[in-house]
Amino acid sequence: MKITVDFEECLKDSPRFRATIEEVEGDVCELESKLDKLVKLCIGMIDAGKAYNAANKQFVNGIRELAQQSAKDEVIESSLTKFAESLQEMINYHTILFDQAQRSIKTQLQTFVKDDLRKFKEAKKQFDKVSEEKENALIKNAQAPRNKQHEVEEATNILTATRKCFRHIVLDYVLQINVLQSKRRSEILKSMLSFMYAHLTFFHQGYDLFSELQPLMKQLGGQLDQLVVDAAKEKRDMEQKHSTIQQKAALQDFSNDDTKLEYNVDADNGIAMEGYLFKRASNAFKTWNRRWFSIQNNQLVYQKKFKDNPTVVVEDLRLCTVKHCEDIERRFCFEVVSPTKSCMMQADSEKLRQAWIKAVQNSIATAFRDKGDSGEKLDRKSSTSTGSLDSGGEPKERSLKGESALQKVLAIPGNACCCDCGQPDPRWASINLGITLCIQCSGIHRSLGVHFSKVRSLTLDSWEPELLKLMCELGNRVINQIYEARREELGARKPQPGDPRHEVEAYIKAKYVDRRFVRRPSDEELRNKVVSLSKEEKRLSSSSDHLPPKAPPPTPKLRPGSHASGQSAAACGKEARRDSLFCPDELDSLFSYFDTSSKLRSMKSADSGIQNSADGSREMLATTPSSNSLADAEAAEAPPVPATLPTASPCKEVVFFEPKEYSPGLQLYWASFSRSLPDMAEALAHGAEVNWVNTEEDKRTPLIMAVHGGSLVTCEFLLQNAVNVNQLDAQGRGPLHHATMLGHTGQVCLFLKRGANQNAADIDEKTPLSIAVEAANADIVTLLRLAKMNEEMREAEGPYNPSGDETYQDIFQDFTHMASNDPDKLNRYQQYDPQRP
Asked: Which domain holds residue 151?
């Protein structure tokens, strides 16, 4: 309804004008309410449309994935791809429609409400105010007494001014009302017409799109008829199979046997027998739980759910026995007993109990019969040969994973945010740089290549203790002081969270690949740095906590039984010590396990010394120096060694000589010896070659100097940065030689895990094993022997087991944990006083 206010009528301020104004104000108030509601509904529609588009995009992606999965069926793959493309086009049309709705409805109407209606409200406020002032002026003029001339004049003047102001404001108000009434029609109609044209375009585009798709849809409709016929035939076949199985199950019910169990050692899936059993828990309540048991690969395992990893009850059936249990209240019980524990189980019937007992017994016999096969594994968790490495026979955590590693690494100052962009709460790390990264920066680091950055997850991957210590030695703050030293000087902007990927990638490449922000030291600064690092030798030598273990004095050759008439080991007092972490019984069982590979021994029969070597090392390590000599044990399979062994310091003393030229490689050389990881990282950033050779010092390398420094973490840092673990010095000795000569058991373990060649001989034709035997270091001899045997077994098995034996891996894991977390257990030799008679 069009409402127009007359300008002449407003000057009269008549009741008709007041009624018209009241009607207009009510209409405008209702108009504002309706427009606000329409805008809100439009916003809701747009938001719902965007959510629909997002869900529709996911649905289309699902169609594409289904098409890729059906790549072998050309009809399905091509049809689904075409449908996905058409639906994606419709999503694009919807997006255009919602954008047009936002421009035509939301933007235009909001502008009308905020601008025009706001002006009307402001004009109304002024009109109401001046109306009230005019009313007050009229009342005051009427009340002025006749005999007080000055009050009459004052009231008259106020009334005149107020009327003048009223006429001005009321005319403006009426003008605003008329303009608003005229404009509301054009604004509303223009907005809605634009919206309707958007719909017209949308439906035209959709019609054209599906008109092109219609022939394909008709063709597929004709093919569906044959598919329905095929589906009906398959259904009949399945119903027949269902009936057959149902009859078979009914016969089993009639025979009162719920499950038909058969022992099949040659089963294709490796599972000789499986079924449900009740298992008694080892807790204080002795609760019984029903679990799915199976005998597979000479192990007895169970699982609660199909997706659960099987829990191993007996890890090698050759080590266990099985027996009936009639002394408990429950029926049909039997017990499987291993050297470390026993497991009580209950079958559902006597027939099933007998079947399980017979299956376990057959598996034990089969395991003993096939014990020479290379595929058989003896896990050390249940083996008595390595029980001393675990406390109380309970399995321990071999590597840190998840929140434990995350908490330790993020506790380092600066690591709580991404090293490159500052994103808080990072979950990734570069292990050769020692920094934490967000997920976007970690992807960019991966693209650089492992020669620049090796990325690992802080929550998903397992972390070896030496690698975790390496991360804790460096950190974002230390690395950024090196790689961003000149960033502010060059005016480079550091990325922020949410920056485009290409900007972050350009910055990371400039930082780590081009090393644009690294400050190059002057010759004098480099000289001072090298001299300072070389002086760390005195500080390290003065600290008893950092002294490398001293080599024991020469062990004189003794004939067997020579100690029978001399003093016993007990009489030696403090001089008597245990040479190995393994007791004699453990070593006998351990080496017996490795010797059982008859297939391996037959393949190596051409070298009879290997068999003798294995037996000899077992004999050597199973006895203490008071009853037999390591040198005597080794004499059976190694060339004769000189009667006089090396002195107490078998390695050349590290002394700093003024070099001819100072270089980043020399800084890395001395930083490796002084255990200063920040200085090592700085040297690599300055372009130091990780395999740099000091020609003035017997061609020693940074890794050899790290061995002499006695730090496992320093060696790990160099290994993570692609150092050659087999690079030799002028004496033909590699890092493994030097670690063996110094008695660094943890470093020996680390180098063997990283592929060090233990068969390499120096210029004196001595291998690390012969050096360890001369030094009477039983722990290192054990590691070298086991590594050699594992290598032989891996060569025999070829591609079937490229990683080698699990027992070997577990033993090395234990040595790794001791070297990182409790090194005193491996440094027993440094307590030996070579001056003691």
From this structure: 7-245
State the Cα–Cα distance between residues 750 and 720, nearest whole angstrom: 12
Same domain flag for 240 and 287: no
Q: What is the CA radius of gyration of the chain?
A: 44
Close Cβ partners of 569 (under 8 Å, ≥ 6 residues apart):
576, 624, 625, 626, 627
Report the alpha-carbon distance of residue 410 to residue 414 in Å, rounded. Answer: 8
Q: How far apart are CA 810 and CA 380, in angstroms?
A: 7
CA distance 807 to 386: 9
Residues in the chain: 837
Q: How far apart are CA 54 and CA 61, in angstroms?
A: 11
Same domain assignment for residues 306 and 208? no
Q: Is residue 814 part of a domain?
A: yes
Q: Are residues 241 and 275 in the same domain?
A: no
Please indicate, yes or no, if residue 392 is contained in any of the structural domains. no
**Quick check: 772 and 781 in contact, CB under 8 A?**
yes
| Tokens, residue 56 | 């529709």
Select from 804, 800, 782 the least CA-distant residue to 791: 804
Question: Is the separation of the CB atoms in 489 and 516 below 8 Å?
Answer: no
First to last CA, the chain: 121
Please count the structural domains in the chain: 4
Q: What is the DSSP string of 719-745?
A: HHTT--TT---TTS--HHHHHHHHT-H
Helix (H) or strand (E) segment spanning residue 76: helix 74-101
d(CA 424, CA 418): 6
What are 275's strand-pairing partners? 293
Q: Could you give the CA distance from residue 219 to residue 380 in angstroms, rounded to a whole number?
A: 64
Mean pLDDT by 10 residues, the chain (837 residues): 62 74 81 86 90 92 90 84 91 90 83 79 81 83 83 84 82 78 81 89 90 86 81 86 80 54 62 88 86 87 82 79 86 85 89 90 75 40 32 41 74 91 91 91 88 86 85 91 90 90 92 91 81 66 44 38 36 38 49 44 37 40 37 37 37 60 84 89 91 88 90 90 91 91 88 88 90 84 83 64 56 67 57 36
Taking the C-alpha atoms of residue 555 and residue 755, their distance in angstroms, rounded to an integer, is 30
Q: Which helix (H) or strand (E) holds 429?
A: strand 428-430
Do 93 and 24 belong to one domain?
yes
Strands (E) across 200-341 are located at 271-280, 288-296, 299-303, 311-314, 321-325, 333-337
User: What's the CATH code of the domain at 808?
Assistant: 1.25.40.20
341/407 same-domain check: no
Final residue belonging to a domain, choices 370, 394, 413:
370
Report helix angle 677-685 to 664-673, nearest 10. 160
Which position has the token pair 């008439």? 565
Please, which residues bridge with residue 429 across strands?
436, 456
State the number of CA atoms in the 13 A half-sphere of 409 facing the CB: 35
- Sort residue 331 into left (φ over 0), alpha (ψ -120 to 50) or beta: beta
Angle at alpha carbon of residue 260, lines to 259 and 264, rounded to 5°: 130
Burial of 134 by CB count in 10 Å (0-12 exposed, 13-18 middle, 19+ buried)? buried
Q: Is 655 left (phi over 0), alpha (psi -120 to 50) or beta?
A: beta
Same domain, 212 and 103: yes
Kindly state the tokens that stand for 442. 């970690």
Contacts for 536 with CB less than 8 Å, ≥ 6 apart: 670, 673, 674, 675, 676
Give ∠ CA 59-60-63 in degrees, rounded to 5: 95
Q: Which of 467, 494, 513 is the last residue of a domain?
A: 513
* Whether residue 143 is found in the same domain as residue 241: yes
Give me 158's structure tokens.
Answer: 């106020």
State both tokens at 313: 């009850």
